[in-house]
Amino acid sequence: MSQAPLIYLYDIDELPLGGGSPALFQSARGSSAVLTTLDGACGAAAETGGPLRIILCASMVRLTQVELSRKQARHLDRVMPYLLEENLLDSPDALFFNARKGEGDEYLVTAIEQDLMNTLRERASVAGANLQSVEVDIECLASALPMVVQLPEGKNLIATRRDAYLVVDEHALNELGPLFGDTLADATQIDSDGSLFDLLRQHQGPQLMTGAYAPRKQSGQPGALAEWRPLLILAASILFLAVVGLRVQAWRYNVAAETALADAMKQYEQLFPGDKATSALTRQFQSRLSRLSSGGGAAGTSFFPMLVPVAEVLKKSSVEPKRLQYDQRQNNLLLDVSAKDYAQLEALQNALREQGAKASIANYRNAAQGVNARIKVEQPG
After folding, report:
1. Which residues of 102-211 form beta strands (DSSP E)?
2. How far apart are CA 337 and CA 339, in angstroms?
3. Which of 28, 46, 111, 200 has the fewest CB neighbours in a 10 Å radius?
4. Higher model confidence: residue 115 or residue 355?
5. Span 220-224, mean pLDDT?
6. Are 23 and 9 in contact (CB under 8 A)?
7. DSSP 47-85
8. What pTM was estimated for this model as a whole?
9. More confident residue, 212 or 328
10. How confident is the model at residue 300 (pLDDT cuts 50, 70, 90)?
11. Contact, 308 vs 350, CB < 8 A?
């Protein structure tokens, strides 16, 4: 809020706060501080459109501290008025208490009139200003203590520590000087026309607008995550694109899987004519292979032991295989081949016999490019 409009309210003659109360106003960092009224400052702040910050002179509140046990601290709001009753001139029921943890069992307390807080909110609301923070000058400038702040109309705020402060005129300041000894001699001198606002913009004190006085969030006002919004939008966009990409990839995989299944079913039906492929193709194919390898025919011989020698011979032979048909009932292979001449057929037959298979040329016929024949292969026995 370093660029927010800033109002500094100070107490002159202890008059009740109202719209005509004197106020110092600075519209933004670096601009001149002008002496005006509370209503005038709120109206000027409304024109800037930014969040309004109001700093109260310590003389308008009561700064003190109390020591609380752990049990009392758990009921801080209820015990505070009774603990401070002897230290306050006003009735505790008319005050608003803001407390924060100090050192050890100590709690730092700010007591402020409820009417004052209500007036601040009311005047800001009437002017259309966006009041977001109310603080106390001594709390903001704690690092500058002890200090003397020059106020308008010849007044001065003397503060030696958080709970020791006084507003006096120039004459009283000179008379009180010896009472403070070297404390005021080394005090920070702050001019309300310029340096005061520079320091207030560099430091922030505890927020008094809490609980029932918490600032109202205006429509369209950026929330706490406003500065992270671009990053959140980027992260959400990346997540959305990743999800879309995964869904597209999954769809493509499903299409590819369905295509592969259709091709496999077609291939299965070509390998095993008359056997309709099902969706459980893997189990169906394994069952088919199991039946082939478990044996067929009366002797209980198997298909694969018969196929191995045939494959070895065909790999080395010069004949061209055309078709391979297995008769599970008869437990034999019918091998259709094409050769240049009958001698190649006999060579193939002899090679199969050397592998231990019972092979014979079932039939053959001459063709334009050589000889076509069917060779019957059986297990010996």
Report:
1. 106-113, 130-136, 147-150, 155-161, 164-169, 188-191
2. 7
3. 28
4. 115
5. 56
6. yes
7. HH-SEEEEEE-GGGSEEEEEE--HHHHHTHHHHHHHHTG
8. 0.56
9. 212
10. very low
11. no
